[in-house]
């Protein structure tokens, strides 16, 4: 997997934002929509801030953009402080000119018996939009992408999954108590992600160095879901120097 290494997350985030802005503008010029797959968590915050700045200061319009988020906790209320729905509105959607009907996020509020149909519909909506042009990813300390935890099949599609204890601990700072972190989530699958035309995975900070090294340089294994990106010929890791420190 090719990597680009930046002095800090600000510079790396600006690069990612510029790549996205360029794609949006070239699609606009051709009269086409631009389909983005989006991630949440601490990693993409600075990139979203840069996209908002580009909208406000550089005239970047999102009128032709269609988005599909990777994942959402289950169950969770859409406007709960910790929901990924709320995260996306706070960090991006509330500040840009995207058409609200072009926003798609797995719904953490639907009744359990409707989850299967919801996941099937999510996959169908991605296909009907023409597939994901560019997918943004972070990486979990355990190598997860989206909420595809170690052991997830390369064939997996959007579905309900059980979060690893390590993931619940890593994300517990958002919640009052570890027991408040949902045990389940709805996530795009590995095959959903691998169907994207282009993939940008960002990783910042020393905690990600070991798993970045394994994903990029070790064997492809479902035990390190991000290593499956080695099978994709348009994927790129965007790293800061500390996250890249273990690469040979
Ligand atoms: C979030 C997601 C997760 C995160 C990963 C890293 O939508 O899909 O895979 O990207 O857990 O989280 P942070 O960025 O908080 O370190």
TrEMBL record:
Keywords: Carbohydrate metabolism, Hydrolase. One of its GO terms (molecular function) is glucosamine-6-phosphate deaminase activity. One of its GO terms (biological process) is N-acetylglucosamine catabolic process. Residues 11-236 form the Glucosamine/galactosamine-6-phosphate isomerase domain. The active site is at 71 (proton acceptor), 142 (for ring-opening step), 144 (proton acceptor), 149 (for ring-opening step). Belongs to the glucosamine/galactosamine-6-phosphate isomerase family. NagB subfamily. Catalyzes the reversible isomerization-deamination of glucosamine 6-phosphate (GlcN6P) to form fructose 6-phosphate (Fru6P) and ammonium ion. This is Glucosamine-6-phosphate deaminase. It comes from Niastella caeni. The lineage of its organism: Bacteria, Pseudomonadati, Bacteroidota, Chitinophagia, Chitinophagales. The chain holds residues 10 to 257 of 635 of the full protein.
